[in-house]
Amino acid sequence: MSNKEHHEESFWTKYVFSIDHKVIGIQYGITALFFLLIGFSLMMVMRWQLAYPDTAIPIVGPFIKWLATLNGFASEGNLPSDLYNVFGAMHGTIMIFLGVVPLIVGAFGNYLVPLQVGAPDMAFPKLNMASYWSYLPGGIIMIISFFLPGGAANSGWTAYPPLSDIATQGQTWWLVAMIFLISSSLLGSVNIIVTIVQLRVKGLTWMKLPFFVWSQLITSFLLLLAFPPLEVAAIFQLMDRIAGTSFFLPSGLVISGEMLQVSGGGSPLLWQHLFWFLAHPEVYVLILPGMGVIAEVIANNTRKPLWGYKSLVYSSFFLGFMSFTVWAHHMFLTGMGQGMSTFFQITTMIISVPSVVILSCFMLSLWGGSIRFNVPMLFALGWIPMFGVGGLTGLPLGLSTSDIHLHDTYYVIGHFHYVVAPGTIFALFSGIYFWFPKVTGKMLDETLGKIHFFASFVFMNGVFFPMFIQGLAGVSRRLADGGASYAHAADVLKWNETMSYSAWLLGLAQIPFIVNLIWTLYKDKDSKANANPWNATTIEWTDATSPPLGHGNFKKTPVVYNGPYEYSVPGMKDDFLPQTKKIKKGK
Amino acid sequence: MLEYLGKLSDKLGLPIVSSDHGYKIDIVIGWVHWLMILLFVGWGIYLIYAIFKFNNKSNPAASYGGIKSHFSQYVEVGVIVFEAFLLVGLSLPLWSQLKTNIPDKKDVHEIRVVAQQFAWNIHYPGADGLFGSTSPSLVNEESNPVGLDRNGFGADDIVTINQLHLPVNKQVLVYLSTKDVIHNFFLPEMRVKQDAIPGMQIPIYFTPTMTSKDFLQMLKGTAREGQGYEIACAQLCGNSHYRMKGYVTIETEQEFNDWLAEEAEYLDEEGDDDWDDDW
Amino acid sequence: MDIKIPYNEDLRPDTGLYNAKLGIWLFLASEVMLFGGLFSSYILLRAGASVWPPIGLDGQSVAHLLEETIGLATFNTVALITSSVTMVMSWVSLKMKDISKFKMYMWITISCAIIFLIVKYFEYSHKIHEGFIPAHDTYMALYFTMTGLHVLHIIGGLFVLVYFVMPDGIKMWDDEPIRFTNRIEVFGLYWHFVDLVWIFLFPVLYLLN
Ligand code: HEA
Ligand code: HEA
Ligand code: CUA
Ligand SMILES: [Cu+2]
């Protein structure tokens, strides 16, 4: 990294308050990976409590004791139930809002979208910087709230009132942080949409866009339109907590024997509607860009065009649109009547169809391919059945009658972890291994990568599959003792240990990855560094300047002639045809 | 056939079912798992086959055109048809049956369940069959957790904490409400689960079909041996959510009436409610 | 190395837009969702209330005060609509390259916004003085939250307006006149939107009770 020292004088504008989308993308990436690690660490501690309730935690016990004392809870190095709730709520919040979304939209979107559409930068570079600099304070506020009396937010990532209205002050910080994160997403999504619509280079027609760009476009629309209602909800809840209003508090509540002195007249379900109106589209925000990554990696490593590109695009559009119409499938058991439940069951079944189509396209793309099993491709291939399991287990939840038994059990936890952990996280890993040479000019090590993949694959299933077993047996989520208090959990309680060991081993399995990242970064740049190591076709590999990228993306504005996935075109010498390469008609 | 294939649910490790609508829910769960298994196994076999057949060693040159068949469209249509069947054939009618046929008050056994952090208050109407009025201002956590007005219809009402007694094979209508935050009234074996929402009183009904005695008999030799029915709270409601547990006793009509009479006697003696558990 | 961002001032042929214009439309779309969420919440909460405005814990309802303030609110409506018109005029002046007229119209717009805020200040303090704070009842909670968010939009807009006529902002007119005109146009769209929101807030909060 010695060559960086020469730029010392411009360090602040170059690396900190940069308006270059590539630097901002990297900033997002590093910050988000860091938050992922925090989110995961919280869960490793929680998994101890789930496997061995109320026993002192090895290694980190003293730290937990210190934190609990600071928050005002009693702990002997174990995780008290108050703190368990804090950790649970913050695991969900951090993973989703501070980890995955900033990584997949903030980092991948920021870095790659302008390059893939041939733009010199994002349409609004200063807004782009503002977007990162409102994400980071949001994250810092969340982290600081851990050290408040009463701890951080403890009402689940869903923050259902009245519980959250009467929760300790960590909840207020959570709301403030969320408002920062919402602003950040807003700025980011406007930027991505304008960049894609306005800055596509000559020749890059809509149907020549890489699928990744499509996925970012649709995702940005979801962020843009779904977050404001959550902002409304957050403002209402802030008012309830600070100004004493009762948006979410009905009259006549009695809390710990005291009548709550508020005006009443509010509705707890209003929050749930506003929240899920965001949070359902949000889950597609997690998965769509992931699908974008998988599409790129699969096309590249099967050395053939993506099968059903158009169906993929239309399906994603349909998915994005439908995602605004299914939110109340999270609320089947709130006392919903016949009409509502019929509507939301039907829309939920409908929304599963585009996912089936997308997955089918990916799998059929393999047919006739010449598959290279490098690390990005392994993660992509692992992603397919894992997302399949996660998606399929969404179906019984989407039928209100089977949801009666499964709602809020570990079945739900299993369902969505299969889509977010081996789903989105695998897509992210795949993308990191795939684009790392673009960002740094260095290839990550394949052997370490393979260890990372196989271990992660095995242990992910080890953590999440038993959740279905527990869930079918009726074990509820968010139980600070993993169900030990309940008789109906007795038969399946033994799985808690299996899951916890898998989670810790999953943690160990990340070490080769972290080592790989650091070690590769410090490795000297290979003198023969190849600008296009995967023989890919899209603009970022073929026309952009070689890494490490300076200011500006292209020596000369590229012009596009071909579709994004022209691999193994019959009659051509190379098995890939870059988007920007002009071929003579008739050949 | 509908039921026979739906019985896949028996293999999925669901709790023993002991209510009359419960097995219908199981059938839905069974059927939807058929769809899931079919899709997963079918595509799984394809996936493994494709990975082996089309690796770059055995297939060095990729085919530009790829697969030509319409196979996947058929699968997609199949999925749509199957899902339509799940909806129209199973789930929608069942939900309507569960939610809209509120039973005639004469034929059912009515109770109120009032959730609070972290206990279940069960309110029986007493001998007159009518609930006394309640008011938040009367609530006293020690002596009157549901805020029952003991004048009027409330005089003979019975309130227990975490003890739900019900007669077997008789439909119960539960009016579910909560004093503070959202809870969820979950009876795993009855396939009953319903949020208790502040400010709302939500009716739910079901018919238990197995007495606690028979149930305990069936548990012999399992990890759960000796532990009968219970009420679980399935919605995060605070730091003791994980142990917001109630006990359910399903007994014969005779036993149930005896129990009610005993409780009523107790009421006369003490002029107070029952405290028969560890809360 | 070409690092100039295309279509910052000129229109992209296939979309017919310059970047900022698309940007502001998208931003406004999200604003529609924001206020849409607020109005939907209003409907839901109002539908659940037996009387409107509801009676607070002190046994009072704000109804009588509201009648008194309809006059003020009507006045404010006029002030905002005027400011929207002058906003358009200032943009038109720029199109006609008449910078002094531009400044004049901008100052009228600014004055209208300030008048709006002053009137709002009196309205708020009067209500608060009479005990009708947000915690009084659901109507008051909605009233303060919805108009409060709207006022924040006005204040934000006011800062931008002032920036445009300050030397720092207006100097762009000399260097990049098209871009400056675009800025005014884009800001004008925002300003109309804020105006439009008020046109909805006014009947919903003052008249339909
Ligand atoms: C990335 C995130 C993501 C995705 C993509 C999905 C996808 C889906 N989800 Fe999920 N969901 C969540 C994240 C996600 N979900 C989260 C976070 C929660 C919990 C929130 C909380 O309460 O905390 C949740 C909860 C949740 C519920 C509420 C459950 C409850 O609380 O009771 C429901 C109910 O309908 C549901 C349904 C669905 C459906 C029908 C899909 C469909 O879109 C799925 C469609 C996909 C398929 C049908 C797969 C197709 C498969 C094949 C074609 C076969 C493949 C086979 C091989 C490859 C071998 N989800
Ligand atoms: C994107 C979302 C996401 C992700 C990825 C995860 C990942 C994981 N989750 Fe989480 N989870 C949620 C979202 C997520 N979760 C949500 C929303 C809830 C509900 C919360 C609530 O109840 O309110 C929940 C709840 C939840 C529970 C239930 C708790 C309860 O109900 O009481 C459990 C239990 O085991 C669990 C486990 C795990 C595990 C073992 C992982 C593992 O898969 C983790 C895998 C992660 C990694 C492998 C990280 C790898 C990254 C690195 C190693 C970074 C490297 C860093 C540098 C180079 C700097 N999660
Ligand atoms: Cu009550 Cu959880
Ligand atoms: Cu959903």
CATH structural architecture of the largest domain in chain B: Sandwich
What's the gyration radius of chain A in Å? 24 Å
Strand order across the biggest sheet of chain B?
A: 3-2-1-5-8
What strand order characterises the main sheet of chain A? 1-2
Task: Sum up the overall morphology of chain B in one term.
Answer: elongated
Mean pLDDT of chain A: 91
Bound molecules: heme-A, dinuclear copper ion, copper (II) ion
Low-confidence stretches of chain B: 271-279
- What class would the helix/strand composition of chain A place it in? mainly alpha
User: Which residues of chain A form runs of ≥5 with pLDDT under 50?
Assistant: 1-9
The sequence of SSEs of chain B as H and E is HHHEEEEEEEEHEEH
Structural class of chain B: alpha+beta
CATH structural class of the largest domain in chain B: Mainly Beta
Q: What is the H level of CATH, i.e. the homologous superfamily of the largest domain in chain B?
A: Cupredoxins -  blue copper proteins
* Number of DSSP strand runs of chain A: 2
Q: How would you sum up the major sheet of chain B?
A: 5 strands, mixed
Features:
heterotrimer; B: alpha+beta; 5-stranded mixed sheet; 5 helices; 20% strand; C: 209 residues; mainly alpha; Four Helix Bundle (Hemerythrin (Met), subunit A); 6 helices; 0% strand; binds dinuclear copper ion; binds copper (II) ion
What does this structure look like?
The complex is a heterotrimer of chains A (587), B (279) and C (209). Chain A is mostly helical. Chain A has a domain at 526-587. In chain A, 62% of the residues lie in helices and 1% in strands. Chain A contains 18 helices and 2 strands. Chain A has a two-stranded antiparallel sheet. In chain B, a hairpin with a 2-residue loop joins strand 1 and strand 2. In chain B, 33% of the residues lie in helices and 20% in strands. The model of chain B is unreliable at 271-279 (pLDDT under 50). In chain B, the strands form 2 sheets. In chain B, strands 3-2-1-5-8 form a 5-stranded mixed β-sheet. A 5-stranded mixed β-sheet of chain B has the order 4-10-9-6-7. Chain B folds into 2 domains: 2-99, no CATH class; 107-270, Immunoglobulin-like (Sandwich), CATH 2.60.40. With 279 residues, chain B is of the alpha+beta class. The radius of gyration of chain B is 25 Å and the shape is elongated. In chain C, helix 1 (19-47) packs parallel to helix 6 and helix 5 (167-175) crosses helix 6 (177-207). Helix content of chain C is 77%, strand content 0%. Chain C has a domain at 75-209: Cytochrome c oxidase, subunit III, four-helix bundle (Four Helix Bundle (Hemerythrin (Met), subunit A)), CATH 1.20.120.80. Chain C is an all-alpha fold. Chain C contains 6 helices and no strands. Classes of the chains: A mainly alpha (587), B alpha+beta (279), C mainly alpha (209). Chains in contact: A-B, A-C. Chains A and C meet through helix 6, helix 7 and helix 8 of A and helix 1 and helix 4 of C. Bound molecules: heme-A (2 copies), dinuclear copper ion (CUA) and copper (II) ion (CU). One heme-A sits between chains A (158, 283, 286-287, 329-330, 348, 351-352, 355-356, 359, 384-385, 388, 391-392, 394-395, 397-398, 403, 407-408, 412, 415-416, 419-420, 423-424) and B (39-40, 43-44, 47). Residues 115, 118, 183, 233, 235-237, 241, 244 of chain B line the site of dinuclear copper ion.
